[in-house]
Amino acid sequence: MSQKGKVYLVGAGPGDPKLITVKGMECLQKADVVVYDRLANPALLEYAPPQAERIYCGKLPDHHTMKQEAINQLLAEKALEGHTVVRLKGGDPSVFGRVGEEAEHLVDCGIEYEIVPGVTAGIAAPAYAGIPVTHRDYGSSFAVVTGHLREEKPELAVEKWRALAQGIDTVAFYMGIGNLPMIRAQLIAHGKDRHTPVAVIAWGTLPDQATVTGTLADIEQRLAENPHITNPAIILVGDVVRLREKIKWFESTQVKA
Ligand code: SAH
């Protein structure tokens, strides 16, 4: 029987292919198999050897996605055949990337693996929009939250929203654009000032990056006025958003194609 291979669970970074880590790039260069998803920039696939097998497991035009169990199995299967496998995920694999489930499965199968962190969109997209997620004068705490909160007991949900509204200075919502009306309503209902600044940053770090800003009170309308702001997008809520006016650098310097 062939020797077992190894799986690298690699963060591809938020969009700009240059934002992958050196270690992530080295993994790609030695890959026999690359299993990649929708948000990993396809330009990165060029760094894998020409003969490497490339397997897409993101959403297809018919919205069908490879099931997580099938992905877990695929990674294990390829490694058991003796291959070096790179599982390439957008951003950081540990942030809403289900890396825990994949790693657990590999442990269960007795397969060696490494996690290679990446630059997450909730920090990178704001940085490219001129918004540092913390700042001594504006925010000393930062949370990442999914906009797709799973069904929870109502009392837990209340506690969570109260904490986000009252206890944390800057909040990045991932996968939240469809739920923006709910997110802003919950934050206001749980005590966040309606005038708190909000930025919605789409296609962060890519040439198409676009940002709209407003406040909790008017962000929904501002978004409706800017229909080009689509997924993937980060909703960033907090006073640090004010800095954008002064230090936005990327959108004002890039040359649009
Ligand atoms: N593991 C990823 C997040 C996966 S969840 C990470 O660490 O970044 C997918 C969500 O990430 C999207 O719905 C969006 O909210 C966010 N996202 C990913 N890429 C983005 C980008 N280039 N610009 C803005 N948001 C992005």
UniProtKB/TrEMBL annotation:
E.C. number(s) listed in UniProt: 2.1.1.107
Keywords associated with the record: Methyltransferase, Porphyrin biosynthesis, S-adenosyl-L-methionine, Transferase
Entry annotated with the keyword Heme: no
Top EC class of this enzyme: transferase
An example Gene Ontology biological process: methylation
Superkingdom, natural source: Bacteria
InterPro entries: 4pyrrol_Mease, 4pyrrol_Methylase_sf, 4pyrrole_Mease_sub1, 4pyrrole_Mease_sub2, CobA/CysG_C, Siro_Cobalamin_biosynth, Uropor_MeTrfase_CS
GO molecular function: uroporphyrin-III C-methyltransferase activity
Residue span, Tetrapyrrole methylase domain: 6-219
Pfam families documented for this protein: TP_methylase
Stated family: Belongs to the precorrin methyltransferase family.
Protein name per UniProt: Uroporphyrinogen-III C-methyltransferase
Organism annotation: Brevibacillus invocatus
